[in-house]
Structures are given as structure tokens and as C-alpha cells.
Amino acid sequence: MKNKQITIIGLGYIGTSIALGLRTKYSDNIKIIGYDSNQDIQRKTKKSGLVDETPWNLPNSVKNSEIVVIATPPNSVKEIFSSIAENLSENCVVTDTSVTKRKIIEWADEIIPKKFIGGNPLVGGLDGNNIEPSGYIFSDSKWALLPAKNTPENKVNKIVKFIQDLGAKPFFVDSLEHDSYTVATSVLPFIFSTTLMNIVSESPSWHEMSQFAGKEFNNVTSPSKNLPDISYGSIETTNEILIDWIKRSIEHLDLLKKELENFNQSDNKLLDIVNNSWEERIRLDAGLANRRKTDEERPKIPSSSEGMMSLFFGSRFASVLSGNDKKKGNDKKSNK
Question: d(Cα 96, Cα 78) in Å, to the nearest integer?
């Protein structure tokens, strides 16, 4: 006999990975209901044995389920809430996997009050849509949780355990803070990718130019390969926050433009900008992006006069990562 029943709405990369993770954890001791608007996907998933049932009717797919997971583009969630609201049992809790949350939580408070806990598995943002599903992608990954207004503690605990069963580590975050972060790290890169792809492809020389496209171009434009409905849904549900980040981006581009127009070899601020970007990326890769809080803690960025080559030798590299530039200077003074 099945111990519990869970419905997964949306059998794409994340939805299928969740089903795989649950099947790995519980084997046949769980009943998984799968629903997808694409009937071919439903049939294939059912045939694989990954899900037990695939109702053709969305409202019926949530009947008797303890947990409902919505793994669809964020701009479709409101309609899904409306479709399933009347068929949710009293003890059922609904969660989602969207990279945006503020509007979704507002819809939940309106349509399914006290039944929703927003979720976002941090396993690659929008980029995950081009990867083969796996039940292990959540292992040791973080999973953001954002309970809607007045959601009972027992329902919150139910989702926390659900996430832990998948091997992930849940943490709680404010919706405004969450969306600002995800827009900057998931949606904005897609905007840059889309912009570059459209700029170059609109050139009359695009056919000839495309032969020169290499690693750098492929890395930057890779997000453009994401499924359009998912990417657009993330844009549509975060437009206000996205506008703010786009304004900041324009300011930085304008600064670059001005530096190029007023290029001065002896006071090369453009190189300082490049150096700063290089340093921040090194710190990110080293897991030190969150270690620097104030200007006092900020290691000195070499000016252009110090030369680009000095960045690539041990002492400078080590000081960038450790932030010990000032300490060394102080030590020298104290030894005199």
C-alpha cells in the first residue's frame, strides 16, 4: 500500500528530477501523480514507470494528494492555482519551483490561502532546462522556501521534510530579497544573452560572422537556448525588479562607453574596471564572494600603471583571495 501521494504538475527537467528523487527515496512506497499539458510527455513518463498515474484532467490530478508540486513557467502558476483550488484537501500543501516568487505568493494568498509555500531549488536557475533530468541534482544543494501569509507550521514542516528527503538543504528568505537575487543571477544573464544574440544576428554579416563564434560567444549566448516560455515567464513576473537591474546595467555600459571615448593611457580607468571584474570572478570561484562587507576589507585593486601582468603572479593572486594587502603594509611599518 502506498504511504503517501504527491502530485507533480509539469514534467520537464525539474519536475521529472523531483519524481526521480522521490522514486529513489521511497521506491514503490509512494504514489506519484504526474500531470503535463503535453500529453506525449505524460504518456512517456507513465510508460517509464516514473509516475503511477497521469490524469488528463488537471483539477483531478490533485485529489487526495498530501503535496502538490508546480514545476511550470511562473506566468502559468496563477491559472494552475485557479484550476486546482477546489480539489485540494484540507491538509494538502502546495509548493512550486519557479525562480520568481513575489507575484506567485500574491496569487496564492488570493486563490489558495494558507496552503502555499514557495520554493526554489538552487540547481542552476534557468540553465537547468537544457540538462538531462536526474534524481541526484538536489543532493546537498540549497532550496529556498517562502511561506505564503498565515501558512500553518505543520504544512511548512511537511515541505521542509519533502525537500530534505530529496537530499536538499532548505532555508527561508524574504520574497523581495529572493526575487532581486534571482533576477540578478538568472534572469539578467538571460537578458544579456538575448540582447547579444539579437544584435549580432540582425547584422547583414551574421552568416560570415557566425563562423568566428567561439567559446566566449557560446558561453554568453548559451542562456538563449532555454525554453522561451520558461524564460519569458520569469521576465513577466519580475518586471519591476528587472527594470531596476537593467538600469544599473545601462549605467555600467554608459561608463564603459565614456571611458572608450575619452581613452587615456596614463589614467586607464577602463583597465581598472576589467581588473575589478577579474578579481570578483576569482573570489566567486574561490567561494569568497560573501567575505567582503566594507570598503575597509576590500583588497587594493592595482591601477593600470602597475601593469596587467602583475595580476598573474603569485603574491598578487594570493592577496586578492585573502584580502591581506593592507595587513602586509601594516606589518612592514611595524617592523621599521
Answer: 11
Query: Do β-strands 142-147 and 116-121 pair in parallel, antiparallel, or remain unpaired?
Result: antiparallel
pTM of the model: 0.76
Residues in the chain: 336
- 40: burial class by Cβ within 10 Å (0-12, 13-18, 19+)? exposed
Highest mean pLDDT among 109-113, 273-277, 312-316: 109-113
- Taking Cα atoms as reference points, which of 28, 118, 134, 103 lies closest to residue 71? 118
Is there a contact between 114 and 153 (Cβ–Cβ < 8 Å)?
no
Please report the domains of the chain, with CATH numbers, ordered by start residue.
4-174 (3.40.50.720), 265-336 (no CATH)
Number of H helices, E strands in the chain: 14, 7
User: Distance (Å, rounded) from C-alpha 103 to C-alpha 240?
Assistant: 11
- Report the alpha-carbon distance of residue 189 to residue 187 in Å, rounded: 6
CA pair distance 194, 228, nearest whole angstrom? 11
Q: What pLDDT is stored for residue 104 in this prediction?
A: 95
Contact 8, 18 (CB under 8 A): yes
d(CA 151, CA 112): 10
Angle at which helices 13-26 and 153-165 cross, to 10°: 80
Distance CA 120, CA 152 (A): 20
> What local confidence, expressed as pLDDT, does residue 200 receive?
95
The DSSP bridge pattern shows strands 169-172 and 142-147 to be parallel
Closest of 93, 98, 16, 4 to residue 54, by C-alpha: 16
Amino acid sitting at position 329: G
Q: What is the mean pLDDT of the chain?
A: 85
**What pLDDT, in 10s, does the model give residues 199-209?**
999 999 999 99
Nearest to 105 by CA among 192, 175, 2, 14: 175
Percent of the chain with pLDDT over 70: 82
Q: 172: helix, coil or strand?
A: strand
For residues 275 and 281, give the distance between their C-alpha atoms in angstroms, rounded to a whole number. Answer: 10
Measured distance CA(177)–CA(170) in Å, rounded:
16
